[in-house]
Design goal:
With 467 residues, this protein is mostly helical. The chain has one domain. A two-stranded antiparallel sheet has the order 1-2. Helix 3 packs antiparallel against helix 15.
Length: 467
Amino acid sequence: MATKAIGTPEQLRDPNYTPPLHQAIPLGIQHVMAMFVANVTPAIIIAGAAGFGYGSNSPDFPEMIYLIQISMFFAGITTLLQTIGIGPVGARLPVVMGTSFAFIPIMVPIVAGKGVDAMAALTGGVVIGGLFHGILGLFIGKIRFALPPLVTGLVVLLIGLSLVRVGIQYAAGGVPAIGTPEYGSLQNWTVALIVVFTTLGFKFFVRGMLSISAILVGLVVGYLVALPLGMVDFTSVARAGVFSVPDPFHFGIEFSAGAIIGISLMAFVSAVETVGDVSGILKGGAGREATDDEIRGATFADGLGTAFAGMFGSLPNTSFSQNVGLIAMTGVMSRHVVTFGAIFLILCGLFPKLGAIISTVPIEVLGGSVIVMFGMIAAAGVSILSDVEWNRRNMVIFGLALSLGLGLQLEPAALDKLPSTMQILLTSGLLPAALIAIIMNLVVPEQLAEEATEELSGGMSGVKIRN
């Protein structure tokens, strides 16, 4: 969207500047469109993992509609915390918040196959984890040294790798269809690949808003293709209410050690991600570094917003990095523009029928879009890792953490003899990998590790492998 008539260069770099309403509102909705699909997808994935997200005839299917509804509602609420702020809470910057993909590998083992009842433990984990996240705001600047690119890149890469299987399963027909004749059918893959290629086509060969919203466009095209094939079921739309306010403790609340520890540890990584997004917004839009108050306020809002959302059964929230690039592209730093987008999200979250319409998107269509999104998460991890100096020390740390983390993801049955709490913490692979990388990075000296590795390499050079 052109920005020449919106304001002067000084005004565009000012977070407190408000463009004219006829320009500010479309700019705000543009931010929503850039994150809309990614915001509601985690709700669909968690509902499906719990076993109440598939089939509009399922008695628990309305719970997935509720999860979609509150994902939109609380994305708007937590975004308002960032743009408007309350006391020390909020960066008062154009930070867009939404449901986080990063927590999915932790949340899936908590709810897997356990139905709606498992959501109470997840609610308790989100509330306590959010409070812990908020506390991190008190000293986030002092602990960033423990998360260099070697650690953050590894974690982001593992998040992407842990999710790609979900994308393939969805494209083939969804988890419940595994083993049926329909699973992996040519029709399912054709629809999913149409979404993939449409998304890539609009991303790389179209400019402006359509390029920014390429994933949304891909979903719409896939949906239109699926309609005449009889893949869309509108039953849920008729069953959904017209207007509804989120319920406090909708799923109840239960305090599970595995859920609390797992979500709290991932909150540490999410806090650093938010710091990076705030820094990126200010560098790209205002040409300056983030202040301590802005970083602290953003982390407070991230954590406390998650805790508040969790009280209504919502999933953890975090800042959305794709909107950082959108600000850099438009050059508009106004926090009030994003406030209009937040209000739009809140309004969407008050109408369950909108959530029901979203739930009619066939799983194969969603699969095509998440294949792209999850691949981009893994690619983002590789991009972060490109800043690492790949000496022997860092290669050993990365290799060990990746091997153990990915191995536990691929073979969770290896932990069947452990207590359930340990299984939840370890089967994601993320937490053991992150802890190994953090601890080794802090305790293994750079110089000594290099010398030891060189000696080992020299000794191994004389070893011959016989065929």
